[in-house]
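Structure, all two chains, one model.
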Amino acid sequence: MLKVLDSAVPVACWSCSVAHNDATLFCPHCSKIQPPPGGDYFSVFGLVPRLDLDLGSLEHEFHRLSRKLHPDRFARARENEKEWSLADTALLNDAYRTLRDPIRRTEYLLKLHGAEIGEEHSGKDRKDPSRVPADLLEEAFDLNMQLEEMRMARKMGDADPDLQASLEQAKRKFDGLLDDVDRDLRAEWQTWDAGDAGARSAAQKRMVALLDRRRYINNLVRDVTETLGA
Amino acid sequence: MAEGHVVGIDLGTTNSLVAYMQGDAPVVIPGVDGSNLVPSVVALDPIPAEGGRPTVTVGNSARRALIETPERVIYSVKRLMGRGLEEIQSELSLFPFRLAEDVEAGEVPRIQLGELRFTPPEISAYILRQLKRNAERFFGSPVTQAVITVPAYFNDAQRQATKDAGRMAGLDVLRLVNEPTAAALAYGLDRANVGTIAVYDLGGGTFDISILKLRDGIFEVQSTNGDTHLGGDDIDNLLVAIALDEIHSEHGIDLRAHPSAVQGLRKAAIDAKIQLSNEQVAKFDIELPNGDRYQREIPRGVFEQLIEPVLNRTAGPCKQALKDAGLTPEQIDEVVLVGGSTRIPAVRQLVDDLFHLAERGKKPHIELNPDEVVALGAAVQADILAGASKTTEEMLLLDVTPLSLGIEALGGTVARIIQRNSTIPASATEHFTTGVDGQTNVAIHVVQGERELAADCRSLARFDLKGIPPMSAGLPRIEVKFLIDADGILQVSAREQRSGQAAQIEVKATYGLTDEQVESMILDSFDHAEEDFAKRLLIEARNEADTILSAVERAPENPAWQQLRGEEQAQITAARDKLASVKQGDDLEAIRKATVALDQATRRFAEIMMEAAVSTAIRGKTMDAAGEEMGDEVTAPHPMAPAEFK
């Protein structure tokens, strides 16, 4: 599902006819641009899938490839090259956007390995009670009550400094919990990157749980921020 | 190189410009009247007595027609680009234009101009064609490729409409570039290429903020935000409203019912606004129909208080852009000011406050003329695309999409598939299936915007996936790829994965022209583009000469003629006779020179005529209006802003 459409790559370069490996953006022989390769986002950057990435060199490589692939470089090229430049650059941008963000990168890699993960950005499951981490059940419930109270108070034009203070305190607490999750995630990255299949599979399970937890807390924090800032 | 010049075009709300890269510096190409700015005003000439399709006039000469034949003139058409009927209703209340009567919901609106009707892209095409001609005259060779700038916050339909206009004008639009980004390119040419910059662009009708990271020639946009209906026009409206109110209450005269009187007031308001950028106080001094004068001093402090709410509307987008880029104001190294409205000291103060400039010992960049900087940047981008120059070979612009792309999901909510501020080109792949056995069609509704409900976002298009092989419900697996290209325009492709069939897509853009419609609107002159170029230039030069000659022919009948000094009249007559005789010959340069000479000789006359026409309009019409009810409020944006600043 993460493959790009029309990935029917010719065995041979369209231009010089020399055969090449299908994960290449440029023909190694004649350097001409090729249709979008079929590999994953990591392979776009010539990387093996891993979680702990050096963002500096990722950016450097993004810029280097952008210079070569961008449609601006093909404005007066033939139609097929223009089309591939567009598709390749979209792939490059999608890959960079995903890999440079630690959470998206983790989600992406876990999905590559068959994990089922909710959508961080769609907000689909933000109200789904089955997603509430057990240890947060009570606090989350209280917080949601307070948020509701705050919204009502706002609607009536009342200020409630106690409630405000209490919400701000809750936000600080949940911000701290987020930091904890992120720290735990990074620790799992090391396990996954270094581990064998067994260690990876265990790390994967823990990361899926951490991501669920993180998403839930994140949504709570967002609700609090929105309510406080309203 | 075999191919011709690629020009950069700033298609503005108030003024438009064309520029190109001359060696290693971008320069603006002046029009036949020597002016860099072509007012974005289009006038339909009177239908010739012998019949035939009337011609149009663009720019300064069209501005003159605004007083004489206002029903045949349109300006600020950029505000109507890519917008639906219901959207422009409110907009039209601000304009003196009429919508064609036979426009139906769902159609691209058409504006009635004299006896003809035009869509907004057609009007823009006339402006583009004028710029194209200016460039061709300048180069002495055809120009067919261009980069055109658009507000960063333009949506898909507004971008497509701009591209359509280019095609109608006979231009291959190689790229649409966002205006603030273009400005950054113009500034980035001769600057140390590292740092984070913010471009604050407050023009006549639109506001954009873009935050870019510069590194080794790569201009990477981090975030962008804005408001496509916020600009200098709003400030003018406030001043006009005050003057109208005061004239009404102090002198018992209501000017509102009379568009041309309001136009006169508006000109005074714009003059006052400009004056207040340099001076502490400006004056309104207008003669009223009953012989009274409406005189009023506007101290800068009062002006600033008045416009504060308008200026404050730019603060929200700036803060959001910073937030989206994950930056604090202190992390912005430089701020670039673009657009005529950034000449207002209060705007500069606001920018200073927003980005904490003064306290960091910094000043916003205003070195490049804010009216020209966007066109200059477009020329830089044109040079990058032409790939022909050492100056720009290391430069690359990576821009973003300003609005999130989403699909309407069950219950009318929006599933986001491409987030705003994603670097473009960007793509997303989604899978769809059927809900009923044997279903062969799936409808998809694509929207643009940040709201949770599809109804609150802007409808972009409805896609009908057709020809799905009949299968049990839920079995087909249709893969649809959404791709936002480097112009910020959506492309869609689809495939049914189980059968391997490419699904047919029927795209119904919510706002926009079909390919066939665009094709049919390609400007007539373009049909003859293949003809001998020199011959065409000659014909155009003669047409220009005719236009000005016929205007001058009627000059002595105008009362303004009597206000000219004797030697001025003599100069005009001499220049007229010279042009009339040169025009008969085939010497292109001589015709052009004589045209320019006549244009310059008549400048003061034209000004007197304008002033006179405005005050007559005020006097005559308000007499009629005495005792009438208050009319609809007319607060049209105005094309008469002086083209040049000190």
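Chain A touches chain B through 27 residues (CB under 8 Å).
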